[in-house]
Amino acid sequence: MTSDPSGLGRGGAAALVLPALVLIGVFLVFPALWTIYLGLTDYRLTGLAAADPQVVGPANYLDALGDERFLGSTWLSVQYVLGSAVIGQACLGFAIAWLVRDRRGPLRRVVEGVVLLSWILPGSVVAYLWIALLDRDGGTLNALLNTPGAAWLLDHPMLSLVVFNTWRGTAFSMMLYAAALESVPPSHLETARLAGASAFQQLRDVVLPRIRGHVLTNLLLISLWTFNDFTPFLITAGGPEGASETLPVYVYIVALRDGELGVGAAVSFLILAVNLVFALVYLRLLRARGRDADVPAPARAATRTAA
Amino acid sequence: MISLHGLTKEFPGGVRAIDALDLEIADGEFFALLGPSGCGKTTLLRTIAGLETPTRGRVAIGGVDVTATPPGRRDVAMVFQDYALFPHMDVTDNIAYPLRIRKVPRAERRARAAETAARLSLAELLARRPGQLSGGQQQRVALARAIACHPRAFLFDEPLSNLDARLRLEARTFLKRLQRDLAVTTVFVTHDQGEALALADRVAVMSGGRIMQVGTPAEVFQRPASTFVASFIGSTPMNLLPGEVRGGGLRVAGARLPLPQEAAGLPEGAGVVYGVRPEYVDLSPAPRPGAFAGRVAVLENLGTAHLVTLEVPAEDGEPPAGSEPGGATVQAVVPEGGEPALGEAVWAAPRHERALVYHDDVLLTRAPDRAAR
Ligand SMILES: Nc1ncnc2c1ncn2[C@@H]1O[C@H](COP(=O)(O)OP(=O)(O)OP(=O)(O)O)[C@@H](O)[C@H]1O
Ligand SMILES: [Mg+2]
């Protein structure tokens, strides 16, 4: 009985998980393998190679890795992730969560409402809003700053995208950190305050050690989302001159606009690999944390008293 | 010395947790704040610490007004009910944390932490994390952290309430000795009156954000200033029976009792509350003058004694003003072996020199003189 707690028997258990396995195989594993295969061919959207793709081996991968444009896109993606996710969303989200942490009432609800709104609006809508905001002629920002004719999207495309994505994604970090801060016992912060700790020392000594897991989870998720984010295409279409062509935009342009499906598949697979690396690093960190995490024990003591 | 003047704390929403409270706590004193749940003890302690800002009134520590001083500069240490040990630091780092904030060099603060830990028999546990300690050990680490930085005052918020009954007794004795050795002013919040009486030099009994009585444990126990304090203090609640002045004596629950000298000025028919602790009630199987006649309704075993609850039937005549028509309940503590049987008719005679008489909720009886004790 010990090896079969559900009592289904081996066959019954297999029958139970089979549909899920089939779905995963059809919709996840097969496309991934197919992408790897395509990446090894000269498959194109149109033309001769579309009808009869030839296997060209690792040429697509090697070409991509040696291609200026690919490397440039990678660097832009790194800027986009570091600037808008790690620095923008995570820091701003934490700052807002920290500042409203013991506020109740209208102020907090208004702040949360505004921040959330930017998050729940559809991507196409916010893209349009930002184009309207940053437009050279008649853009709202130029009217506000009284800088007619400033072409934000042309002169500072990456900066514009970083600000945009920070604005768009901060809500998630804010909510996650707000929930994490709730888990910091007030008595711990008060003990530090009584010892004379400054706000920075309270953060360093009490808050951060406690919410490390939340910080990791948050950074992983927003890094992945931002890395794979395609909304920049809706705002700048990768331009001007590829100055805002992050990797997902690059794949789209190469594979679907230029029709080089084989190269696109190869780059897609590289993106997938980057995602996997993110996830592995995260799992590693999380496991390391699990080892030295100690549950404080007043709860344990309390149960003993009750007994 | 900690002095509070007209201290009031109102929370948003109109809850007045502390109400125009005045209090002086002497240097080196072990002072207990005692009261039922929600009476404002924690709020008062937190206001002294500076974690709450009073709505009105002043707080002075050592003669200096600290009402506007942030908690970190008041030089007080607080031990919270949950101990608030930092789970990611080992015992040494926890104890040394306030020293670290004060920029004491690392070697010195480790030495001081080790020294304090040794004093609290924690020397073996210095490298452990709080999660690897028992409740009693955690409580001592929290104490050590408070002690190691040599504050002007300790503020303890129910530090023993998470311990089991036996450990709590040990910790109590330990705490008392420690405080005596250190001679640091200590304010101790508890809702356990036994703890307050056992530990404190002086006790303040609170209710509804006000102080009902301040005094030594003996004063508060023997001469509770109001019926609230009388009913709150004591391991078995005091018998508080309505009665009235009649014919130069007291008429209480069917018994005729002598009128104490201090109550002689009361007019005929004046309503009083007659209080006597169950420990000062003697039972006898035969009728006696000045005793309540009743039937044994409940028997509770206290270990070395029994708590006997008597039903005293309503009087034949009109009941005294304020008493329930259904008769009264009188409790008595009888030593082992002397307990009556359930349902038996017995007579309960209060010891008059121990009785307290309240009129308009003011204690009339004076302290018994030495001869009477
Ligand atoms: N932050 C707060 N906001 C609003 N009301 C509060 C707050 N803290 C305490 N109160 C109220 O103030 C009153 C006193 O609370 P306090 O915590 O001081 O009671 P206590 O005597 O310590 O009770 P206990 O023995 O249960 O700990 C209570 O009525 C409580 O509901
Ligand atoms: Mg409390």
UniProtKB/TrEMBL annotation, chain A:
Classification via Pfam families: BPD_transp_1
PROSITE patterns in the record: ABC_TM1
GO cellular component: plasma membrane
Statement: the UniProt record of this protein carries the keyword Lipid metabolism: no
Main location: membrane
InterPro entries: MetI-like (IPR000515), MetI-like_sf (IPR035906)
Domain ABC transmembrane type-1 span(s) in chain numbering: 75-282
TM annotation in the entry: 12-37, 80-101, 113-133, 261-283
Membrane topology: Multi-pass membrane protein
Extent of the signal sequence: none
One biological process term in Gene Ontology: transmembrane transport
Xref: CDD domains: TM_PBP2
Keyword entries, A-Z: Cell membrane, Membrane, Sugar transport, Transmembrane, Transmembrane helix, Transport
Keyword field contains Phosphoprotein: no
Intracellular or extracellular location(s): Cell membrane
Family statement: Belongs to the binding-protein-dependent transport system permease family.
The protein's name in its UniProt record: Multiple sugar transport system permease protein
Species this chain originates from: Thermocatellispora tengchongensis
Lineage per the UniProt record: Bacteria, Bacillati, Actinomycetota, Actinomycetes, Streptosporangiales
UniProtKB/TrEMBL annotation, chain B:
Xref: SMART domains: AAA (SM00382)
PROSITE patterns reported for this sequence: ABC_TRANSPORTER_1, ABC_TRANSPORTER_2
Ranges for region Disordered: 314-333
Compositional bias ranges of the Low complexity kind: 319-328
GO molecular function: ABC-type transporter activity; ATP binding; ATP hydrolysis activity
Domain ABC transporter stretches: 2-233
One GO cellular component, as annotated: ATP-binding cassette (ABC) transporter complex, substrate-binding subunit-containing
Keywords, sorted A to Z: ATP-binding, Cell membrane, Membrane, Nucleotide-binding, Sugar transport, Translocase, Transport
Pfam families according to UniProt: ABC_tran (PF00005), CysA_C_terminal (PF17850)
Gene3D superfamilies xrefs: 2.40.50.100, Nucleic acid-binding proteins, P-loop containing nucleotide triphosphate hydrolases
InterPro entries (UniProt xref): AAA+_ATPase (IPR003593), ABC_transporter-like_ATP-bd (IPR003439), ABC_transporter-like_CS (IPR017871), ABC_transpr_MalK/UgpC-like (IPR047641), CysA_C (IPR041193), Mo/tungstate-bd_C_term_dom (IPR008995), NA-bd_OB-fold (IPR012340), P-loop_NTPase (IPR027417)
Domain of life (superkingdom): Bacteria
Record-linked PANTHER family: MALTODEXTRIN IMPORT ATP-BINDING PROTEIN MSMX (PTHR43875), TREHALOSE IMPORT ATP-BINDING PROTEIN SUGC (PTHR43875:SF15)
Name of the featured protein: Multiple sugar transport system ATP-binding protein
